[in-house]
């Protein structure tokens, strides 16, 4: 027979673990680079851009498009890696809380 009270308790546990994991995402930082390190972007696990570093050697370049492209590439690389790390963190904190349900992706909660 279905244990509704047990399930409700389990859901509260899942919610608490998700909240804990989401709070820790801000502590994850990832730095990615483009242009052989000429541009670096740092993103946290909440996919917020924290810092962009641009090497001074390309700031005086007449090719503004190249600088723009390098910034976009570095930010996109950092966002991708941060997203992967955030999913790993969420999975680690929620592992074993719910049965393996196909299509249920706890890593996407709050990301």
UniProtKB/TrEMBL annotation:
It comes from the Bacteria. Keywords: Coiled coil, Cytoplasm, DNA-binding. Residues 4-31 form a coiled coil. It is found in: Cytoplasm, Nucleoid. Its main location: cytoplasm. The keyword Cytoplasm applies. It holds the Pfam family YbaB_DNA_bd. GO terms for molecular function: DNA binding. GO terms for cellular component: bacterial nucleoid; cytosol. Homodimer. HAMAP family: DNA_YbaB_EbfC (MF_00274). Binds to DNA and alters its conformation. May be involved in regulation of gene expression, nucleoid organization and DNA protection. Belongs to the YbaB/EbfC family. This is Nucleoid-associated protein SAMN06296052_108139. It comes from Pontibacter ummariensis. The lineage of its organism: Bacteria, Pseudomonadati, Bacteroidota, Cytophagia, Cytophagales.
